[in-house]
Amino acid sequence: MTGYITARLVAAVPVLLGASLLVFLMLALIPGDPVDVMLGASGGTITAEQREAIRGQLGLNDPLPVRYFNFLVNAVQGDLGRSISTRRPVVVEITSNIPSTLQLAAASMTLSVVLGFVLGTTAALKHNTVWDTIIMAIALGGVAIPSFWLGMILLMIFSLSLGWLPPAGTGGVDRLIMPAIALGYGASAIVARLVRSSMLEVMHQDFLRTARAKGLAEYAVVVRHAMKNALIPVITLLGVQAGFLIANAVVVETVFSRPGLGRLLVQALLNRDFPVVQGVILVIATLYVVLNLVVDLAYAWIDPRIRYR
Question: Looking at the whole model, is its pTM more than 0.85?
């Protein structure tokens, strides 16, 4: 197991390098000068020599390969540079915003797993009935409705019209409900569809007929045998969905004016704050790699036949 984890971590290095390189090159091609954003209204009051001095301090006059190499060397040491807009270390900007994003992603994942398993299992057990049709219609809506549109609808109904929930910010569970629903509804629909198909495939296996023949209660047959054997493809999907939820938080955090990595990334892109953009993308890519590794290790826990060497 240790050898497998080490090999996966080593294989993740080229992935992270590729992601950082692509982001670096795309940012380098964006028109505009970050110095203008940093100086703001005072940009017209400084001389050309002072502007060039600032560019030199920020390393913007160096060739692209040199700038990228310096970024990698500093990143390995835990230094992602300083924000051009706030002049704070990028690590500080990220660590102050990442708890809110992880909280939102965890709440959304919990909602998607619970709702997806309940709906998917119910649809499989009520196959070809009106309940199956209703649940699949709900799942289709989750796949079709964009999270930003659902978020605005939730704001209009539960915040502006009814006044039940606060419209924005962080602080309590009441401020987490609408963002979690907006972000997790689509994921729960996908989970429900996969759980239904996996359960339908497993429910016709011979070992379930044997379990029923031995006199096991239907609850034990479904939960202890059918559901456990249907988990492998679902766990694979959950790993992908976890990364999707973290990345898609960009939209939801913007809609609900919620601090987090997503909103930080949007503001950094608008301000051409390249160090912050590179740092956030690198963190998101790292989280995605780690989540996929956790999913692979979960296979062995669910299915004893799977062993990693």
Answer: no
Q: Is 215 left (phi over 0), alpha (psi -120 to 50) or beta?
A: left
Residue 148 and residue 80 share a domain: no
- The span from the CA of 111 to the CA of 183, in Å, is 9
Residue 24 pLDDT: 77
State which of 43, 74, 90 marks the end of a domain.
90
Q: Which residue, chain included where needed, has tokens 């560019």?
A: 55
31 and 105 housed in the same domain: no
- Which residue range forms the structural domain that includes residue 208? 97-302
Q: Which of 269, 278, 286 is nearest to 91 (CA)?
A: 278
Q: What is the b/e burial string over 55-81, where b = at least 16 CB atoms within 10 angstroms of the residue's CB?
A: eeebebeeeeeebbeebeeebeeeebb
Check: CB of residue 120 under 8 Å from CB of residue 196: yes
CATH number, domain with residue 254: 1.10.3720.10
What are the tens digits of pLDDT across the range 250-303?
A: 778 888 878 888 888 888 877 777 788 888 888 888 887 777 777 777 666 666
Residues 107 and 210 in one domain: yes
